[in-house]
């Protein structure tokens, strides 16, 4: 049984420019006292076959955690364009929010993020050199949630 359950993740700025920070609110429920903080991480995955290209955009500790429904706002840096292979910039990438307690991951919430140009002409005929200042991202509203049993 999990002591902490995610109730909702709400993206505050979606869609947004590719270079904007990620802003979202996480709401979760805690059913028993926890003596340590929860750790949350935001990870950008541009190329699933190459894990070494994953970018941890930010992490934060949340605590102490009272019993009941809790929420916090999380702000994560945008991905570093220099660490994304050019062929993986446009189209679908993954955004993963993880929750851990005492270095044990208890939840992973994955979203698809679509990145494209901000006008039809560039969408139809993308420039050879990527114009990051013209890119917009849109995060899907339907996450994939994976829960893990841990020792609380």
From TrEMBL:
InterPro entries documented for this protein: ASF1-like (IPR006818), ASF1-like_sf (IPR036747)
Claim: Chaperone is one of the keywords in the record: yes
GO cellular component, one term: chromatin
Pfam families attached to this UniProt entry: ASF1_hist_chap
Key words, A-Z: Chaperone, Nucleus, Transcription, Transcription regulation
MF terms in GO: histone binding
Subcellular location(s) of the protein: Nucleus
GO BP terms, alphabetized: DNA replication-dependent chromatin assembly
Database matches in Gene3D superfamilies: Histone chaperone ASF1-like
PANTHER family to which the protein is assigned, alphabetical: ANTI-SILENCING PROTEIN 1 (PTHR12040), HISTONE CHAPERONE ASF1 (PTHR12040:SF0)
Family the entry assigns: Belongs to the ASF1 family.
Protein's UniProt name: Anti-silencing function protein 1
């Amino acid at each position: 049984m999990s002591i902490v359950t995610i109730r909702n993740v709400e993206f505050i700025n979606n869609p947004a420019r590719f270079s904007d920070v990620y802003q979202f609110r996480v709401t979760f429920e805690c059913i028993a006292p926890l003596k340590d903080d929860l750790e949350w991480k935001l990870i950008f995955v541009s190329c699933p076959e190459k894990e070494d290209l994953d970018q941890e955009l930010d992490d934060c500790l949340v605590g102490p955690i009272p019993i009941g429904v809790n929420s916090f706002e999380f702000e994560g840096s945008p991905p570093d364009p220099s660490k994304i292979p050019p062929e993986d910039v446009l189209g679908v990438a993954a955004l993963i929010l993880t929750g851990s307690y005492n270095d044990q991951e208890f939840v992973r919430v994955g979203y698809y993020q679509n990145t494209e140009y901000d006008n039809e002409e560039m969408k139809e005929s993308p420039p050879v050199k990527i114009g990051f200042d013209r890119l917009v991202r849109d995060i899907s509203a339907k996450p994939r949630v994976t829960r893990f049993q841990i020792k609380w």
